[in-house]
Amino acid sequence: MLRWLNLLLALAMIAFAAVQYNDPDWALWVAYYGVPAFWALVAGLRHRLLQRLQWRGALWTCVAGWIGLVYYHWPAMPQFWRKDVWWQEETAREGMGLMIALGVLLVALFTAYRKR
Q1: How does DSSP assign 26-83, residue by residue?
Q2: pLDDT at 116 over 60
Q3: Number of domains within the chain
Q4: Whole-prediction pTM value?
């Protein structure tokens, strides 16, 4: 079950990265979505790698980094989750995208400890 969830989340993150092609800072956002996609693929296809201390430490480092990114990119406008707000405000979409990316990393981290 977790394998398929991680693979589905990896595909979602790859799709998020793919739609960044017309963004002026596309490379940054491809990385922001590509790293969680990588970890979801590892958790879905090679979960035993996550039993190694170095891999788990790298995953924890990414989780901490994405917590910092979510904090930094947290949308400043009130009720940013409403469609009429995020449809107009790119910063709201970016912040919510990072929240989703952090969620993907947390699922991969959960998988690392669940598959023991």
Answers
A1: HHHHHHHHHHHHHHHHHHHH-GGGGGSHHHHHHHHHHHHHHHHHHHHT---STTTTSH
A2: no
A3: 1
A4: 0.89
